[in-house]
Task: structure prediction
Amino acid sequence: MEELLAKATQGVDMDAPDAFVHIFINLMAMIPWTALFWWNLVFVAVGALLGWWRGKLLSGVIWALVLGPIGWIVVLLTPKSAKPPPLPRSR
Result:
């Protein structure tokens, strides 16, 4: 924990009024954004596949985008959408 605090406060004047902003920027620089982006794309792709299978493509994409893999469970637990009734025959 001390190593993380040392990295977050590196080069920050703790008495400065904007010390919080500099610490926040240092913490955000330590996050692996590229890996998070690709994992999110995988989650959305699987959510879209599950949503398509359940007849709710947009719902699958949105739940996966918001909740990640937990959104898959939400999509799987919702009832399958019923097919619309057939159209009447034209004369």
The first helix runs from residue 2 to 8. The chain has a mean pLDDT of 90. Residues 32-80 form one domain. DSSP finds five helices and no strands in the chain.
